[in-house]
Amino acid sequence: MPKGFIIRDLKWEDFHDIATNFFSYYEEVDADPDFGLTLMEKKPTWQEEALWFANTYKSVLDKDRIMLVAVADGKVVGACEVVRGGSQQGHIGALGIAIQKDYRSLGIGQALIKEILKRCKKRFEIVVLSVFANNLGAIHVYEKLGFKRYASLKNALKRNGRYFAEDKMYIDLKKS
To answer: Tens digit of pLDDT for each residue in 56-102?
Structure first.
C-alpha cells in the first residue's frame, strides 16, 4: 500500500518503469485471461518498446498526445494517455489507462483520469475509450467521471480463442 502518490507529466526518464509495467500486463493476461486490458498479440521486445516510447514522447511534445503518470513508492505505477484522432477527428482524443496490479482500487486511476480530462479541455472536444464489457470496476469509474456508453459489440475482442464484448464510451468536454 503506497503512502501516497503523485500525478505528473511523462518524463523521458520514465521509459524503464513504463516498459516494465507494460511487460507485466502480459504476465497478468497469462494468469487471468479475463484481465481487461487490450494488448498486442505478441509481447514486444525491449527495442520495439523503446521505439514506441520515443514515438509516444515525440507525440507528447508535438501536442498530439497528453500522457500522465502516477508515481508511488518511488516508481511509475500507472499511466494514462489521450491521443488525438487523425484526419477529420482531430477534436477527438482516445483515452487509455493502465495501473499496476498492486496499486489498483486505491483511487490512482480515477485521479489520473480526472487530471487528464482537465488538461484535455484545452485540446479536445470529445474523449472516447474502449473497455472490456466485463470490466465492471473500470466501467463504474468511467461512468462516475461522466463517460456515457455509446456502443457495445459482442465478440469484439479475441484472446487465446476466446471472445470478449467491448463497450465504447465517450465524454463531451464541451458539456462537462
So the answer is: 999 999 999 999 999 999 999 999 999 999 888 889 999 999 999 99
- Contact 101/28 with Cβ under 8 angstroms? yes
Domain 6-128, CATH: 3.40.630.30
Q: How far apart are CA 146 and CA 113, in angstroms?
A: 11
CA 18 to chain centre: 12
Between 4-8, 38-42, 142-146, the lowest mean confidence (pLDDT) is in 38-42
Please give, one letter per residue, the 3-state secondary structure of 94-124: EEEEEECHHHCCCCHHHHHHHHHHHHHCCCC
